[in-house]
Write a structure and sequence with these properties.
The protein is α/β, with parallel strands linked by helices and about 290 residues long. It contains 13 helices and 9 strands. The relative contact order is 0.13.
């Protein structure tokens, strides 16, 4: 009987991973949902999962949270998270966890994207911990783009500074399915996977939105400075403008693209097509 732990279990990715585990036949009582706020996990507990308090920022909660866990999915935090991740990894080793699966970022160690050094540091700490490990370097979520469809339709355009270079975003559900596969299989020891969907440009995203909704949307490419000015003029908070520009600059530099095929191999199928993701978003946002 293998006990699987999932950190961040009430987050969007964590919940999807748990759903995939249950669909794969893992018994609910064999899944430990590690959460920062157990009151947010009543639905998981009501389904028979073992819900435990485990806060990355409060190391004393971690030993009990990880006790008896055999395989742990460490879903990455946000901001300056290296020390917190290291605390989880150390607690996992002390608790006797056999393997840790970590959700890193695409091309960690080969990109200057904000947070990449924190991911790389976590990878290195895990690799040096003596624990068995698997590293999932997840690319962008397709939902980062499709969730903005109402805005794109209202403006009639997608505005960016990507030089219209491709990015290999995939749906959150695809990343979750890949993580679930790795958690239940034993042949991923010491593997590092670069995960991404079929690459597309923002022009192709605009064309897909146009085709599916019947409303014309075009992609307009700007310089980084012009994009920053555009965002500010549209009321985007100053604190987010630099981050948004940096993301597009990273896309222009190829940081969000991969043709590794690792995601598709883990899924055992093609990743969700762009058109399907756009259709789902159109339905979710009641776009006609």
């Amino acid at each position: 009987m293998t006990i699987i732990g999932v950190t961040g279990a009430t987050g969007q990715l964590g919940r999807l991973v748990i759903e995939r585990l249950l669909k794969r036949g893992v018994a609910a009582e064999h899944v430990v949902a590690v959460v920062r706020n157990p009151t947010m996990a009543y639905d998981l507990e009501s389904r028979g999962l073992d819900v435990r308090l485990g806060d990355y920022a409060d190391a004393k909660t971690l030993p009990a949270a990880l006790a008896g866990v055999d395989v742990l999915l460490l879903i990455s935090g946000q901001g300056r998270f290296l020390a917190q991740h290291a605390a989880v990894i150390d607690a996992a080793r002390q608790a006797g966890v056999r393997r840790v699966v970590y959700t890193s970022t695409l091309r960690a160690g080969r990109t200057q994207l904000a947070g990449a050094s924190e991911h790389l540091g976590t990878e290195q700490h895990l690799q040096g911990s003596g624990l068995d490990y698997t590293i999932l370097r997840n690319g962008q979520y397709l939902e980062n783009h499709t969730s903005r469809m109402p805005q794109f339709l209202a403006q009639g355009e997608i505005v960016g500074a990507t030089a219209n270079k491709p990015l290999a975003a995939a749906t959150r559900a695809d990343y979750a399915a890949a993580a679930a596969a790795v958690l239940v299989q034993d042949d991923h020891s010491a593997k590092v996977y670069e995960l991404g969907g079929t690459p597309f440009t923002l022009s192709e995203l605009a064309a897909a939105i146009t085709d599916i909704t019947g409303t014309t949307v075009a992609y307009r490419d700007l310089s980084s400075d012009d994009l920053a000015a555009f965002l500010k003029s549209n009321g985007v908070p100053e604190s987010f403008v630099g981050f948004a520009v940096e993301l597009d600059e990273a896309t222009a530099a190829g940081a969000h693209n991969t043709d590794s095929g690792d995601l598709q191999r883990l899924l055992g199928r093609p990743s969700t097509p762009l058109a399907d993701a756009v259709k789902a978003a159109a339905q979710q946002h009641a776009v006609r």
